[in-house]
Amino acid sequence: MSDFTSEFWHLYVAGLTLISIIACLVLLWVSGTTKVKAHSDNTTGHVWDEDLREMNNPLPKWWVYLFIITVVFGLLYGALYPMFGSMQGKLGWSSAGQYEVEKQRKLDAIAPLYAAFSEMEPEKLAGDPAAMAIGERLFMNYCAQCHGSDARGSRGFPNLTNNDWLWGGDPESIRTTITHGRMGVMPPMAAAVGTAEDVTNLAHYVLSLSGSPHDSVRATLGKPKYAACAACHGAEGLGNTALGAPNLTDNIWLHGWGVEAVTRAINEGITNVMPAQNHLLTEQQIHVLTAYVWGLSNRPKN
């Protein structure tokens, strides 16, 4: 990555830009001073389509002046704005700075709207139609890409409507998830379990915890191997919200169902990342979004 962030690329871009501008001036000068030997009728001897002849006329002055003005404008623009590599320009303008200014302007404009919701508890806020309309828009903009527009998720992306929570479904846990993000890691466990046969037996035992179709004989053989999983998923397979370890007894399969899917999870492990949203959303927006997400799987208290 350092190859793309070194000082060389700044100098490369700045130098290439400046050379291009100078090359335009050189091209203009050469074309204006080079003498072409012409015939007595002021043609160069080049003919196209039988009767189109190239005349030996100089470039129009208005075009030359416009060309020079364009080059001068480019140099002035490069001095004032960031055009030459990482040089900021005399005005100190940047697209990132402009974005922050416009973003803050919008936030200031909507601040009074969110102020009306800031003192309400999420459980009460989830019953406010105006707040939930805003929460739905926030969800569509920042959450639907992964969890779906109906919040029912897909493989690898949790369903937010079924009250099955990896990290806890109370408003404070949801707020923490939205604000700081989450990273759930299940390491590859095959080495701790034993042979490939042991892994398959364990997969059947895991399926048996939720009453899913399984081979009961294999499940019995795999039960002792579950000790390698109990530290995270619990002795009864009920999961652990402190670790983001799923409940294995509820027949909800985030990464696929069946012997093959469970075996793959044991052999290869799983890593799930929910990115933090606090750099995109304000505290007030997170408060409303928390109430909306909580309300997807809970009956609001009016």
TrEMBL record:
Cofactor(s) required for function per UniProt: heme c
Transmembrane stretches, start-end: 12-30, 62-84
Free-text comment on the cofactor: Binds 2 heme C groups per subunit.
Residue intervals of the Cytochrome c domain: 130-210, 217-297
GO molecular function: electron transfer activity; heme binding; metal ion binding; oxidoreductase activity
Binding-site positions, heme c 2: 186, 229, 232-233
InterPro entries for the chain: CcoP_N (IPR032858), CcoP_N_sf (IPR038414), Cyt_c-like_dom (IPR009056), Cyt_c-like_dom_sf (IPR036909), Cyt_c_oxidase_cbb3_su3 (IPR004678), Cytochrome_c_Oxidase_Subunit (IPR050597)
Subunit structure: Component of the cbb3-type cytochrome c oxidase.
Protein name (database record): Cbb3-type cytochrome c oxidase subunit
Protein's organism: Tepidicella xavieri
